[in-house]
Every structure is written in structure tokens, then in C-alpha cells.
């Protein structure tokens, strides 16, 4: 028993995180190949308009997140974490297939736009239910005193998925001409994502039994949250604004940002993006360990303050030099800063809710915030341009999001004792 249980827990972590990896991989490659997707699937227009249209479709997935959080978060609390994780993985697969096989606008006309939007909506619903069930599963199944480290794998897998997306993008841009990428090459990353999904479904099916044992009793979670946990919901929303905005603005959008406003070659930006996400993986796991030792609130408080003041001077370096070495350093610093907050966030937000409504509480707060501040970040930042009154637009965006996060961390919601995975239902 002593040898099987640790292995089972490791497999459970992998099963919980594989869907998160697929979610962020699909979001990452969509952002990386947004200009090519726009040319293939949207009506002809000028390049900036096409890019903005494509990024707005990217944001459409974020709009669907609250619906996924409401439906799948309640399902996870009522029926079990495992069945929900399997369902989110399957929905992501259908959405990815829609994008992969979507016919070009030149052939299908408006039908290609409809198929693209349906694919993004399904991906958004899947992503909306993913984070709550996976985070609840990880913190509830962790060994004593290691809930923060276990939950930090959610954000570490985001870094791994971004690395996978950047690696695929770097290979595509290295081996295919721009004309080949525009014609069919942009579909290759989505084909890879679709091929991984059956593995995720199988792994989650094998992990579903222990997850059901941890499922909470059936209840209308949103009603309980509204009546008994308003303070926790508002605190979680404040934290989730930064949790959503920072990765989108400073990680996912970064390659497009440097390409659009600094004239950096796509291949060079993807290489820097790849190295930056190594720092995201290492930093997220480190933040999880620090959260277990010092408390999630302290780690998030320090990192939120740093995200308030440091992104602007770091990004300003690119106005002086934007060589590959400089870009790797900038991407690494930004990814590490983001990792310190997002690595501790799953534990910090999970501690705000009792087990019976934990998946719903995490999913709803995170996905409402992401739908407001995350998914449309690339489109908003593209419209704002390089700088806003001398401040890099991406840095300004994150600094604004840091303010409600700092307010939430100083609120009475965090005055209770440190998080206990199996604490009393309150």
C-alpha cells in the first residue's frame, strides 16, 4: 500500500493536469498563428483588421467560460471531479476539430466563420469547467502540507503547453515557407493537439474512481455561493483578474506584441517565448512550495505588488534593444514574475471555499474574471498599440489588474486560518 499510493497520487496529478495542458496549448497556438487563421478563415481586409478580428474570435472562447464554469463546476461538485474532467477533455477535442477542419473562407464563405466561432465556444465551455474541477481535485488529493505544490502543477502545465506550442510554431516557421503556412501549415499545431486528446480521456477515465470518492453532495452550488460566500466570491474575483490578465498580456500575447510593434521575426519571438516558459514552469512549482511553507496569501501579496511595478521597466528594454538574447531575458523575467502569482493562486482561491462548492467557486470566479480581463486582452492591447502615454500597454494592463488583487488579499476574506483541504464545511 505504501508503494502504490504515492504512484497513484502522481498519476492523479498527471490526469488532472493533462486537460489543462491541452487547454493552454490550443489557446497558445491560436494566439501564435492568429494572423494566418485570420487570412484563411475570415473575410479579406487590411492586415490589422484581420488580426483584430481573429483575436476577437479568440476572446469568444473567454465569453463562453462562465457558462462552462456554471454548468461543469456544479457538475463537478455534485457528481464528482473525475467524470467532469473527462467531459471537459472531450469538449476541448470537438472544439479543436472544428478549427482544424474548418474550410477556408474562399471556399465556404460565412460558414467558415460560423465553424470557427463554434469551435472557440466549445473550447471556452471546456476551459470554463476545467480549472475548477482540476484545482479542487489536486488540493483535495494532496498529501498533508503539500496542497500548494500539487495545485501549482496546473500553472506549470500551462508553461509546458506554451513551450509545446512555441516549439511547434518554431518548427513550422523554420521548415515551411510563409505561403505554405498560410495555405495549410497553420493547421498542423491543431492536428497535434487533437491527437493528444484521446490520451487525456483515457488517463482521466482511469483516475475517475478515486475522484468520485471525493465528490461533494449534490447541491445548487451557485445559490450557496450567493447566499453564504459573497465575500469569498468577491475576493476570488479580485485575485482572478490578475490570474487571468497577467498570463494573457505578458506571456501569450508577447510574441505578437514584439512582432507587431518591434518588427521582430516570428521565428525569433517563438524561440524567446519557448525559453520564457521554462521560467514559468520552474517558477510555478517554486511558488507552490513557497505557498505550502509561508502561506498562499503571502506569496500572492508579494508577487502582486511586483507585477504592479516591474512589467513596465522590463518591457521598456525592448525599445532600446530587441535582439534574441534581450528577448529571452525579457520573456524569462516576465514569465517568472507571473509564475509567482499564478503558481500560488489555485491554493489561495481554493482556501476561500468549502469543499461542497469549491469547484464551482473557483470555476465561476476565475472564468468571469478571464472573460472580462483575459480572453480579450490581445485584441485590446492590439488596439492600444505599443505604448499608452509612455507606458507599454501590456504592462499597464497588468498593473491595473494587480490593484483589485492586492485589495482582495488585504480583505477580511483572508483573515481566516490557513487553508485546510478537508476542513469543516462552513
TrEMBL record:
- What Pfam family does this protein match (any one)? Sugar_tr
Residue ranges constituting the Major facilitator superfamily (MFS) profile domain according to the UniProt record: 12-419
- Transmembrane stretches in the record are 12-38, 50-73, 85-107, 151-175, 181-202, 233-258, 270-287, 299-321, 327-352, 364-388, 394-414
Lineage: superkingdom: Bacteria
Say where the protein is mainly found: membrane
Q: Which GO terms describe its molecular function?
A: symporter activity
InterPro entries, alphabetically?
H+-coupled_symporters, MFS_dom, MFS_sugar_transport-like, MFS_trans_sf
Q: Classify the protein's membrane topology as the record does.
A: Multi-pass membrane protein
What cellular-component terms does GO give this entry? plasma membrane
Keywords attached to this Swiss-Prot or TrEMBL record, sorted alphabetically, are: Cell membrane, Membrane, Symport, Transmembrane, Transmembrane helix, Transport
Q: What subcellular compartments does it reside in? A: Cell membrane
Q: Which PROSITE patterns does this entry report, sorted A to Z? A: MFS
Q: What is this protein called?
A: MFS transporter
Q: Which organism is it from?
A: Acetobacter nitrogenifigens DSM 23921 = NBRC 105050
Biological classification of the source? Bacteria, Pseudomonadati, Pseudomonadota, Alphaproteobacteria, Acetobacterales
